[in-house]
Design brief:
Elements (H helix, E strand, L loop, with lengths): L7 H8 L8 E5 L2 E6 L10 E6 L4 H19 L3 E5 L17 H19 L3 E7 L1 H9 L6 E7 L5 H19 L20 H7 L14 E6 L4 H11 L4 E6 L3 H5 L9 H12 L19 E5 L2 E8 L5 E8 L7 E4 L13 H11 L3 E6 L20 H5 L1 H10 L6 E6 L1 H12 L5 E5 L12 H5 L5 H8 L2 H9 L4 H24 L4 H17 L5 E6 L4 H9 L12 E6 L9 H20 L2
Parallel strand pairs: 3-4, 3-5, 5-6, 6-7, 7-8, 12-13, 12-14, 14-15, 15-16, 16-17
Antiparallel strand pairs: 1-2, 2-4, 9-10, 10-11, 11-13
Length: 602
C-alpha cells in the first residue's frame, strides 16, 4: 500500500517556497523538460542550474526532490531546467536510436544551451545526482561559462555501479513482493525499469580516470556518510584547482529508498543555495532577456504525439496528453498517479500504457496530483495527500482541461492503489466519467481519513498473518525486533473487527459505522453499473486489498452479480505494483479492451 510516513522535512521545505504555479513544460532537441524561472523579489541572476537525473528507482525518488530544489532556487533568483534523458521517464523512445552514455552527455549539452536560452543567464551550474553526476562530469569540459558543479552521491565507477544495482534490484523485488521466478535480472534493471543496453555497455568502461581534466573552478560535493567511493572521488577532484564545498549527505538513504515515506533533506535546501550565492556569477543580473518557447511543448515519434501541459487553477498541475496521430477513436483514458510516484509511473508503466493505447487509437492524459512529482502542493491541504478528498475534487480540473481542448468524448479513469481509490471515487461521484479501471484498491471508502500509520502499513489478510505466524523466519524477526508488534496487533484487530461487524450488521444495521460505509460502497457500485463503459476491478493474486473486497462482495465475489458492467480480474504471478513486464502487458490488454468497448458505445 502507498506510504508517506516521514514527510516532515519535505513539508517544511515546501512551505518555505510559494510554489503556486508549476514549472513551465518545454521541449528542446526532442526532449521533454520543465523550466522554472526565477521568481523571487530580487532580479534573475546570471547563473542557471541544469538538473541531471540519476537512473531507475533513484530517478523516481528524486523527482519531487528536484522540484522542491528548483522552487527554492527560483525564490533566490536562480532559474533552472530539469529534463528526461532519451529512453527514460517521459522522454520519447525512438526505436532506431542508439542510447548510450555519450547520448546522455549530448542531451546534457543540449540542456545547457536550452537553460541559457530560456533564462537569459550566461553561466550554468550542472547539478548531477548519482549517475547524473557522471554525466555532469563528462559534459563539463564542453560547457562554456561553467559556473560550477554540484555532485550529489556521485556514481563514476560503472562496473561497480552495475554490481550494486543488481544487489539493490533483488532487495527491491523482494520488498515489493515480486516472485523470484518473475524477476528481471538483466544488467541495469531495477524496479521493472530496463536500462538501455547501450548505457549498460558504456557504463562498463566508465571509471574515475575519465574525470581528471575537469574544468570546474567551484564544486559542491555531497558525499554519503562513510562512502569510500565518494571520498576517493572527492580527493581526486581536490588535486586540481577547484574550490570544493563539502556537504555530508546524511539524508541520502531516506531520500532514495522509496518515493513513499521519503524525507527531503532540509539541510541541503539551505546549503546548496548558500553555495550558489557565493559564486561570482550570482553577483550579476541575467545578461539577456529570457526567451521561453512559444506554444505548447509537443514531441512526436512514429504515430504518437505527446503534449506536456500546465492545467488546473493557477496552472499548478503538470500533465501529458498522448494522442494517436491517426485513427483517433475519440475515447480518452485518464491515468492517475500512485502514491508519490510521478506520472511516468512505477516501472515506467504510465508512459508505456499511454503509448500502447495511442497505437490502438485511444488518447490518454497522465498527470501528477498536487504535491506529487512535478506538481507543487496546495497551501492549506493536509501534508498526507494520499486518500485525501481534495485529490478527488481535483479530477474536476482534469475534466475541465479535456473539455477545453475538445476531448469531450467518453473518458475512462485508470489508477492503481491510492490512484485506484481516487479513480473509483471520482468516477462514482461524477457521471461525466464513462468508466473506471481500479487496480489493487485497498479500500473503496474510508470511515475517516487514514492516518500515516495506516497508510504506511496496510493490514494483510488474516490468513496471511496466520501463515506467517508459523514460519521460522517470522520468529527470528520477532526476536530481533524487526517486526512492529503494535502495528501487527492493530492490523489484525482491524481485520477481526471487519468480520465481526459483518455478522452484526443484520441486527444493528445503520447503527454500525461499518454498515453505513458498506451501504455507501454499494451505492457507488450502483452508480458505476449504470455508466456506458465497463468498470474493471483488477487485483494481483493475494493482494491485501482483496480482503476488503471480500468483505463487501463475498469470498467468491458473488455480490458483484447485482451490478452489470462491473468486471473482476485477478492477475496471477505478480505483486501489488504489477512490476513484471508480462503482468503489465496483461493489465494493458484489460485497459485496451475496456477502452475499445467504450468506443463502440458512442
Amino acid at each position: 500500500m502507498s506510504a508517506n510516513a516521514n514527510n516532515g522535512a519535505a513539508t517544511a521545505a515546501e512551505r518555505t517556497s510559494e510554489a503556486g504555479e508549476a514549472a513551465c513544460p518545454v521541449a528542446f532537441s526532442g526532449l521533454p523538460g520543465l523550466f522554472k524561472p526565477a521568481s523571487g523579489a530580487s532580479p534573475a541572476r546570471d547563473v542557471a542550474v541544469l538538473f541531471l537525473s540519476p537512473w531507475g528507482i533513484d530517478e523516481l525518488c528524486t523527482r519531487r526532490f528536484f522540484r522542491i530544489t528548483a522552487e527554492v532556487l527560483a525564490e533566490a533568483g536562480v532559474a533552472s531546467l530539469r529534463f528526461d534523458y532519451p529512453g527514460t521517464a517521459n522522454a520519447l523512445d525512438a526505436p532506431d536510436a542508439v542510447i548510450d552514455v555519450d547520448c546522455w552527455v549530448e542531451a546534457a549539452r543540449a540542456g545547457v544551451e536550452a537553460v541559457r536560452r530560456f533564462s537569459g543567464a550566461d553561466n550554468v551550474v550542472l547539478l548531477g545526482f548519482g549517475l547524473g553526476a557522471a554525466i555532469a562530469l563528462k559534459a563539463s569540459p564542453h560547457v562554456e561559462n561553467l559556473a560550477g558543479l554540484a555532485l550529489l552521491a556521485p556514481v563514476v565507477a560503472g562496473r561497480r555501479y552495475l554490481r550494486e544495482l543488481s544487489v539493490w534490484s533483488a532487495v527491491v523485488d523482494e520488498g515489493v513482493g515480486v516472485a523470484p521466478h518473475m524477476r528481471d535480472t538483466a544488467p541495469g534493471t531495477i524496479a521493472g525499469l530496463t536500462m538501455p543496453q547501450g548505457i549498460v555497455d558504456t557504463l562498463a568502461t566508465l571509471n574515475a580516470d575519465a574525470f581528471d581534466d575537469n574544468p570546474a573552478g567551484q564544486i559542491f560535493f555531497a558525499a554519503r556518510p562513510d562512502n569510500t567511493a565518494d571520498r576517493q572521488l572527492r580527493d581526486r577532484l581536490a588535486k586540481g584547482e577547484a574550490a570544493i564545498r563539502d556537504f555530508t549527505f546524511r539524508g541520502y538513504d531516506k531520500l532514495v529508498s522509496n518515493p513513499l515515506g521519503q524525507e527531503i533533506p532540509a539541510d541541503f535546501l539551505e546549503a546548496f543555495p548558500d553555495w550558489l550565492k557565493g559564486l561570482a556569477a550570482f553577483e550579476a543580473p541575467a545578461r539577456h532577456p529570457p526567451r521561453l518557447p512559444a506554444g505548447p511543448a509537443v514531441l512526436t515519434v512514429g504515430a504518437v504525439r505527446e503534449t506536456a501541459q500546465r492545467f488546473g487553477p493557477g496552472g499548478r498541475l503538470i500533465g501529458t496528453l498522448t494522442e494517436p496521430m491517426e485513427g483517433d477513436t475519440g475515447t480518452t483514458a485518464v491515468l492517475l498517479t500512485t502514491g508519490y510516484d510521478h506520472q511516468g509511473g512505477w516501472a515506467r508503466s504510465g508512459v508505456d500504457l499511454a503509448r500502447h493505447l495511442a497505437r490502438k487509437g485511444v488518447a490518454s492524459f497522465r498527470f501528477d496530483s498536487a504535491g506529487v512529482g512535478d506538481s507543487p502542493p496546495v497551501p492549506g491541504r493536509r501534508a498526507q495527500v494520499l486518500y485525501d478528498e481534495p485529490q478527488i475534487a481535483d479530477m474536476a480540473s482534469v475534466r475541465q482541461y479535456l473539455d477545453g481542448i475538445g476531448r469531450t468524448g467518453p473518458a475512462i479513469l485508470f489508477g492503481r492503489c491510492s490512484g485506484a481509490y481516487v479513480a473509483f471515487r471520482a468516477a462514482a461521484q461524477d457521471e461525466r466519467w464513462a468508466a473506471c479501471i481500479s487496480v489493487n484498491p485497498y479500500a473503496f471508502r474510508w470511515l475517516k481519513p487514514p492516518s500515516e500509520a495506516i497508510v504506511s502499513s496496510a493490514p494483510r489478510a488474516l490468513g496471511d498473518y496466520s501463515q506467517k505466524a508459523l514460519q521460522l523466519d517470522t520468529f527470528r524477526r520477532l526476536v530481533s525486533g524487526d517486526i512492529d508488534l503494535r502495528a501487527a496487533a492493530r492490523n489484525i484487530g482491524q481485520r477481526i473487527a471487519q468480520r465481526l461487524s459483518k455478522r452484526l450488521a443484520p441486527v444493528l444495521g445503520p447503527l454500525l459505522a461499518t454498515e453505513r460505509l458498506e451501504r455507501a460502497v454499494h451505492g457507488d457500485f450502483r452508480a458505476l453499473s449504470q455508466r456506458p463503459g465497463r468498470t474493471c476491478l483488477v487485483y494481483s493474486v493475494d493482494d491485501p486489498g482483496l480482503d476488503n473486497f471480500h468483505v463487501h462482495f463475498g469470498r467468491q465475489a458473488e455480490g458483484l452479480a447485482a451490478y452489470p458492467n462491473i468486471e473482476l480480474h485477478i492477475l496471477p504471478d505478480t505483486d501489488h505494483n504489477v512490476t513484471p513486464r508480462a503482468s503489465r502487458e496483461r493489465l494493458f490488454h484489460i485497459v485496451e479492451q475496456a477502452a475499445a468497448s467504450l468506443s463502440r458505445t458512442r
